[in-house]
Specification:
The structure holds two protein chains of two kinds. Chain A is of the alpha/beta class. Helices cover about 50% and strands about 15% of the residues of chain A. Chain B is globular. Chain B starts with 7 loop residues before the first strand and ends with a helix. The chains are: A alpha/beta, B alpha/beta. Bound molecules: guanosine-5'-triphosphate and magnesium ion (MG). The site of magnesium ion has 4 residues of chain A, from helix 4.
Chain lengths: ~300, ~130
């Protein structure tokens, strides 16, 4: 297949077209994903998440420039929320990445979160595989941290950088349980603003409480994404962390967890889709029967999933 | 599986003029019409626009300009798309463009020109009717 070869050669047209097939949920996408799978697993997948406007895209821009200076290739997936009402989305992350637009070693794709309710869609996960198979050394995924997507990024990334900024008041404390735990590296961006040191201290205090005794506390790094200050340090910490997990069984453990949840989720979807398409008229009559109390929903479900005789 | 066909549009602002209110209004209108709008910001070169359009695999490019360099910049985008074999992408233009320039721009491959005051709903309709899906 032409498309596969083009992706494996790292050609931009091919990569772009395959991601589109994935986004459209086209049947060809699954065939193509089967064929590239053997070629995935080499890229380090970095998730960058944090509140709206915290400077994530600016950080991705700087970090990518840094990685490029080491002659490594970078694929970027920038995800913005899709409007649940219209299905449309305004994808503006490229504004901060203009300098990368013509770099032949960088591929940037903006994606709407689409169907995934507040979280990350499978399309973003599969798009990361495409970039990986296309020979990117790093795949960076930017998502806005609002609720579920902050947690979901863990399912997608090998390394998660959580971005916070000064001036969030008591928000460090208010950060929902379960969110602090996902950060492997903490970034306090907009360090040119008042209160950056206080945020650093607050995060460190919180991490001290949360980190198990013998485990190393994740680093907290101050950056100014508009000037590039702190980016060297961020890059070094990411590399260090990557080597650490790649040389222990931590990376394998994470990836296996990811594969497990992927396998379960695609199985779930497949079965559900099959039932929805094969038995849609049956569902309609069941709804009526359930409404009229001729049957209860649980018994109806059992009938629905029972194999046809 | 259910297939989805969300239209993707790149809204770009070539040229040197430094304000993009018009482009942002269009971007929001397209989003509200259910499209995915990739907004790339100010002062884009035709090369940057075309490269972004290819990576984002958009169905259409909306170019907005106020600085008067449209007769050079718009055709340049079309020409580069052709060179990349991506001339199936619909290109439309908007901004302060004198009537007498419009025929030449269409000749050069710009599908439609929308001058100030055009209701955004017309632009939405035009894109929906003309993108190749
Ligand atoms: N003062 C200051 N401004 C910054 C810094 N980093 C980013 N900004 C600005 O903050 C604004 C938002 O930056 P983005 O990089 O778009 O932030 P983002 O988190 O990607 O935003 P969303 O994707 O919309 O959530 C822009 O105006 C940036 O120029 C910084 O370190 N200091
Ligand atoms: Mg952003």
């Amino acid at each position: 297949m032409d498309l596969i070869q083009s992706v494996l050669n790292g050609e931009k047209r091919g990569i772009a077209k395959m991601i589109t097939l994935i986004e459209k949920n086209a049947p060809e996408a699954i065939e193509a994903l089967k064929q590239i799978y053997q070629h995935t697993g080499k890229a380090a997948i970095i998730g960058i998440t944090g509140p709206p406007g915290s400077g994530k895209s600016s950080l991705v821009n700087q970090l990518t420039k840094k990685i490029r200076s080491e002659d490594k290739k970078v694929g970027i997936i920038a995800i913005d929320p899709t409007s649940p009402f219209t299905g449309g989305a305004l994808l503006g992350d490229r504004i901060r990445m203009q300098e990368l637009a013509l770099d032949q070693g960088v591929f940037i794709r903006s994606m709407g979160s689409r169907g995934a309710l507040g979280g990350l869609s499978r399309a973003s996960y599969d798009a990361a595989k495409v970039l990986d198979a296309a020979g990117m050394d790093y795949v960076i995924i930017e998502t806005v941290g609002v609720g579920q997507s902050e947690i979901d990024i863990v399912k997608l990334a090998d390394i998660v950088a959580l971005v916070l900024i000064p001036g969030m008041g008591d928000e460090v404390q208010a950060i929902k349980a379960g969110v602090m735990e996902i950060g492997d590296v903490f970034v306090v961006n907009k360090a040119d603003k008042d209160g950056a040191n206080r945020v650093v201290t607050e995060i460190e205090m919180m991490l001290d409480l949360n980190t198990e005794k013998d485990a190393a506390r994740p680093p907290v790094i101050k950056t100014i994404a508009t000037t590039g200050e702190g980016i060297d340090e961020l890059n070094e910490h990411i590399k260090k962390y990557w080597h650490q997990i790649a040389n222990s069984n931590e990376l394998a453990k994470r990836r296996k967890e990811r594969i497990r949840s992927e396998l379960i989720s695609i199985t779930e979807d497949h079965i559900l889709n099959q039932i929805l398409s094969d038995k849609s008229s049956k569902i309609d009559s069941m709804v009526k029967d359930i409404y009229e109390k001729k049957i209860d929903p649980y018994s109806a479900m059992e009938l629905l999933i029972a194999p046809e005789k | 599986m259910t297939q989805t066909n969300t239209i993707r549009v790149l809204v770009a602002k070539p040229g040197l003029d430094g304000h993009d209110r018009g482009a942002k209004v269009i971007a929001r209108a397209l989003r509200d019409a259910g499209m995915e709008v990739i907004y790339t910001g100010l002062r884009q070169t035709p090369e940057q626009i075309v490269e972004a359009a290819i990576q984002e695999d958009v169905d259409a490019i909306g170019l907005s300009i106020l600085s008067g360099a449209h007769n050079f910049l718009f055709p340049k985008v079309v020409e580069l798309l052709k060179k990349e074999g991506a001339d199936d992408i619909l290109v439309i233009g908007g901004g302060v463009i004198p009537d007498e320039d419009i025929p030449g721009l269409k000749e050069a491959g710009i599908a439609e020109i929308f001058t100030p005051g055009t209701p955004t709903s017309r632009i939405v309709e035009f894109i929906k009717e003309n993108v190749k899906h």
